[in-house]
Amino acid sequence: MTPRVLIADDEAGMRLVLRTHLRRRGWDVDEAVDGTSALHMLEHEEYDAVVLDHRMPGLSGIEVARTTNCEPLTFIFSAYVDPQLQAEADELGCTSVAKTDLDDLLRQLDEALGALA
Question: What is the Cα gyration radius of the chain?
């Protein structure tokens, strides 16, 4: 089964970077440009994981995660990971990763979804 991942980020360049890395792994990737679109897609499609930017127009990544109870596997991928965001993500059961640590995000996705590929 091919893993299916949703990327939600208002920055086209970041979506391109993530999409490129994930598709190289053979995974199916969908994209949303904001939190509202991401939530709509999560309500109507099935994903193995979602990567959410924290600061997006409309709903923030943490608001989307709160609405979905971090289901599916959810990563808050933000340039602004601070102790409060880390605590909120932990409390919800999702993972926060700084955008400066793309390798860590990819490693965690590989560990979580590699068995599906």
Answer: 13
